[in-house]
Amino acid sequence: MSIEVKGISKMYGAQKALNSIHFSAQKGEIVGLLGPNGAGKTTLMKILTCFLPATEGEATVCGYDVNTDSLEIRKKIGYLPEHNPLYREMYVREYLAFIAKVFNVPNPKSRIEELIEQTGLSPEANKKIEFLSKGYRQRVGIAQALMNDPEVLILDEPTSGLDPNQMVEIRALIRNIAKEKLVIFSSHIMDQVEALCSRLIILRNGELVADDAIENISSTINGEKKISVIFKHNIDLSLLKNIASVSRVEQNGNKFFLFCDTNTDIRENVFDLAVAQKNKLLMMQEESSSVSSIFQSITKIES
Q1: Which of 9, 93, 156, 259 is 20 to 30 A from 204, comparing alpha carbons?
Q2: What are 144-172's pLDDT values in tens digits?
Q3: What is the CATH number of the domain that holds 193?
Q4: Within 13 Å of residue 184, how many CA atoms lie on the same side as its CB?
Q5: What's the pTM value of the predicted model, to 2 decimals?
Q6: Which residue, among 298, 286, 223, 277, has the nearest Cα to 258 in the 3D structure?
Q7: Domain identity same for 199 and 138
Q8: Which residues pair with 246 in a beta bridge?
Q9: Strands 199-204 and 207-213, how do they pair?
């Protein structure tokens, strides 16, 4: 197991930033860490990267305790903070050589060239960091986070401020990296989270309010599932409302949305109605909620 968190809490004076957080994550996952501003995301990342001590609870990274084995953990993780702390007066290779020396990386020249190629820095590798675009500075930040070939990669807002093309490139890079690592990905850009992550951990006011696959969280929040159907011919709305187990019906043009309990299967009932009405069923599928709607639902519920 790459990360295991048991009852982690953090106090800043009288303010509780985290309240008894529990979760675990493993190699090969890209976990989206979400929450409104002040939810505790950055505090949690700083505890896992040993920048901050927890007030209560336990956490292990790659089997090492954050309270007692911080040096060992730092050898196993890569971290890109939200405000990418680069020495802008240094050249790209010069900066990466400095990072390689910090980690005592064997064969540093070879590793630096490997990362320059992997992160797509080759066109700008001979420039000073201060002359790079935001997208290339983010690539330098990711390269430094990967320098020690970490088992766990923690990225705080890695696509913030990038244009759409840069976002796609960084997203592809992260997806490729995650094949052999655990990636914790924090972002306020919901489209990026939805494109990258299959699992979400959502915090609000220091509490863990959701931890599951996106589709499972959606069902848990809403307590119901949404089935969209299209018939060849128009159908009376009242007939759909009278289908057993359907709680409500909405219509958008020729598409109907049927809501029912998450444990209920209404497909056979819908098909039987179509047959009875001598109508043809052109489409029927379960609608999945977007990350944005999931986030907004949790915010609304918890406010």
Answers
A1: 259
A2: 999 999 999 999 988 877 788 878 888 88
A3: 3.40.50.300
A4: 32
A5: 0.78
A6: 286
A7: yes
A8: 260
A9: antiparallel
